[in-house]
Specification:
Elements lengths: L2 E5 L2 E2 L2 E2 L1 H14 L3 E8 L3 H9 L4 E6 L8 H15 L3 E5 L2 H14 L3 E5 L1 E5 L2 E8 L4 E7 L4 E5 L16 E4 L30 E5 L18 H23 L2 E4 L1 H5 L20 E5 L5 H7 L4 E6 L6 H4 L2 E4 L2 H16 L2
Parallel strand pairs: 1-4, 1-6, 4-5, 5-12, 6-11, 7-11, 13-14, 13-15, 15-16, 16-17
Antiparallel strand pairs: 2-3, 8-9, 9-10
């Protein structure tokens, strides 16, 4: 029996699905104890109700103009103030960009231990223990903290999403900001829309491309592209168009290896790997990706991995359940056509 808090990560009035996964984990962790959801923003009353329907007993609702746009300072200040006053046993965050940032800042403010990117979590008395991958996911490490509160960030798609219970009821308590709007050292100037309609972190299917997307000598760049590097990038962009078409048919997100990003083929927002997004989709299709350790660390927990590569000795094949040795420029369009027929698209 424990008092467990969950930070619900949301953007523009839409909660990240991983927030509900964390809430489900909190419900199991608390047992017959109490689960409280922290919902901050403006116009987020609907998210507060969703949190109750997904398992929260109460919602601490920070509804204020100063919290309308995510900024780490006012968000962290409010989390730390509330936790210092109420002293929950455990405080959980999604392993999202915002979740990781807030967990670190709250850990400093509360002088509390933080367990990061965990895939299993348990509470034994006053000790929170967890399992997290290390060494590019090749080993699992058991870690624990006995601070109060104990903080942890939970990996995306590592915990099941609970069922929505529309008949559930709970209490919504409004809380006041801990920092005045003018005291925050940062401000949001504007938002820029990212490419792609499916988030990598939440995607059930990901189609990724690597340096192999540029390896098609039969493609002739336009006459005005004479620089060799620009010709390489142009060829790679044609390869990523094929990957994008397959992703669109499957309702998937488009990913990329670090090598492809560093070469300028696609923006960093698509990078999968230790220095990019760590993902765990149901299906991961790697096209023209050799399988560097850095990339494997970011996708090795995918349920099914399909590799397409010309090199039969590419390291990616050791991890893949299904491997196709061949030219992605031939294989990917064939897959797209086959899925279109099978899915009637």
């Amino acid at each position: 029996m424990a008092n467990v808090w969950v930070f619900v990560d949301q953007f523009k009035g839409e909660a990240l699905p991983v927030s509900w996964e964390v809430l489900g984990a909190a419900r199991k962790l608390a047992g017959s104890g109490k689960v409280s959801a922290l919902v901050f923003g403006q116009g987020v009353e609907a998210i507060a109700q969703q949190a109750i329907q997904y398992g929260a007993d109460e919602v601490l609702l920070g509804e204020d103009a100063s919290l309308a746009d995510y900024r780490p300072e006012p968000y962290a200040a409010l989390i730390s103030q509330l936790a210092a006053e109420a002293k929950p046993d455990v405080l959980l965050f999604p392993t999202s960009t915002r979740g990781r940032e807030l967990a670190a800042m709250a850990g400093v403010d509360l002088d509390a231990g933080v367990l990061v990117d965990v895939i299993e979590v348990a509470l034994d008395g006053d000790t929170l223990s967890a399992t997290r991958p290390i060494y590019a996911g090749k080993l699992l490490s058991k870690v624990e903290t006995s601070t109060k509160p104990a903080l942890a960030t939970l990996r995306v798609r590592a915990f099941g999403k609970p069922e929505l219970d529309e008949g559930r009821s709970g209490e919504v308590k409004k809380v006041s900001p801990a920092m005045a709007d003018g005291d925050a050292p940062t401000k949001v100037v504007e938002y820029a829309a990212a490419e792609g309609s499916v988030s990598l972190g939440d995607a059930a299917i990901i189609v990724s491309g690597g340096r192999g997307t540029s390896n098609n000598p039969d493609l002739q760049p336009p006459a005005d592209i004479t620089d060799e590097k620009e010709q390489e990038i142009w060829r790679a962009q044609q390869g990523f168009k094929l990957i994008g078409e397959l992703a669109e048919v499957l309702g998937a997100a488009v990913g990329a290896s670090r090598a492809a990003v560093d070469a300028g083929y696609v923006p960093y927002s698509h990078q999968v790997g230790q220095t990019g997004k760590v993902v765990a989709p149901d299906l991961y299709i790697a096209s023209g990706i050799s399988g560097a350790i850095q990339h494997l660390a970011g996708m090795r927990t995918s349920k099914v991995i399909v590799a397409i590569n010309k090199d039969p000795d590419a390291p990616i094949f050791k991890l893949a359940r299904f491997g196709v040795v061949g030219d992605l420029y031939k294989i990917v369009p064939a897959l797209t056509a086959a899925f279109k027929e099978r899915l009637n698209k």
